[in-house]
Design brief:
The protein has 275 residues and is α/β, with parallel strands linked by helices. The chain has one domain: TIM Barrel (Alpha-Beta Barrel). 40% of the residues lie in helices and 16% in strands. It is built from ten helices and nine strands. It has a seven-stranded parallel beta sheet with strand order 3-4-5-6-7-8-9. The chain has a two-stranded antiparallel sheet with strand order 1-2. Helix 1 packs across helix 2, helix 2 packs across helix 3 and helix 3 packs across helix 4. The protein is globular and about 55 Å long.
Length: 275
């Protein structure tokens, strides 16, 4: 049997909020063509992908501007917007507030759905970082709070540091190639009602060249990319957030939902080094 019970939901809950978003969202790192990216993101939202991830450091704010344009085109209520602020922003409430106000200005929004600490700051204790993060929710700049690139021990500390708001997400690298989160992080997230957002779930497209994924995909009439994404979203409480600027790739991502790999194929992938 596979490591985890198979999650058949194409709408995944954000933390314990009761709010659900599509099991596949879209990332916005390293956008090269603004107009093409906007077209692809709008197409994604119009076809059922309702969550977009960005960060203040992506393109020095350009990605947030692009997401803002997408939201204006499709309507605010159709997109769950996540942004990430650099770790040093959380060294004080004032720094965090200044940073989120700048992000909101670029996005053209009065509030985002989720703000994450992009990675833990080694120079400041986690309790202080979480206090500054929670302040942003208290002030109404964000509906929810979370973290990114936090290991289990850091996540544990973050959870006990909150006062009024819960940590709903930990965004980490996870794919059929990079499976480190399966050891401790995903089980911990499941136990504590935390959603994992998996970045780089198709390893920047390199999964398309993997022979095992090609063979498995042929059984389902699916591409290696679709198999790789399905592997990720088959995990309980895991959302995949691949990045693309191409409409045909968005269509491929959409085709990774609505079905699931068999327990036997999931187990085969778990026990095989696919690279």
């Amino acid at each position: 049997m596979p490591l985890f019970p198979i999650c058949y939901e194409d709408k995944k809950e954000i933390g314990k909020t009761g709010e659900r978003v599509s099991a596949i969202g879209l990332g916005t790192w390293n956008i090269r063509d603004r107009s093409r990216a906007i077209e692809a993101l709008v197409y994604a939202v119009e076809n059922g992908i309702d969550n977009i991830d960005t960060a203040e450091m992506y393109g020095d704010g350009l990605a947030e501007e692009i997401v803002g344009e997408v939201v204006r085109r499709v309507g605010r209520d159709r997109v769950f917007v996540t942004t990430k602020l650099l770790p040093h922003r959380f060294r004080s409430r004032d720094l965090a507030e200044k940073a989120i106000r700048a992000s909101l200005s670029r996005l053209g929004l009065s509030q985002v759905d989720l703000v994450l600490i992009h990675w833990p700051d080694s120079l400041v204790d986690i309790k202080s970082q979480i206090e500054a993060l929670e302040y942003l929710a208290e002030k109404g700049y964000t509906r929810y709070i979370g973290v990114s690139n936090f290991e289990v021990s850091q996540l544990e500390e973050a959870l006990v540091s909150t006062r009024k708001h819960e940590i709903v997400v930990d965004q980490v690298r996870y794919s059929v190639v990079y499976r480190q989160p399966e050891k401790r992080l995903i089980p911990y997230a499941v136990d504590h009602g935390i959603t994992i957002q998996a970045y780089t779930p198709i390893e920047r497209g390199s999964v398309s060249r993997l022979e095992l994924l090609t063979r498995i995909g042929e059984k389902y009439g699916k591409t290696p990319v679709q198999v790789a994404l399905n592997y990720v979203i088959s995990r309980p409480r895991v959302i995949a957030i691949p990045k693309t600027e191409k409409k045909h790739r968005v269509e491929e991502f959409l085709g990774a939902m609505g079905w699931r790999l068999s327990p036997e194929d999931l187990e085969l992938l778990e026990r095989t080094r696919v690279l």
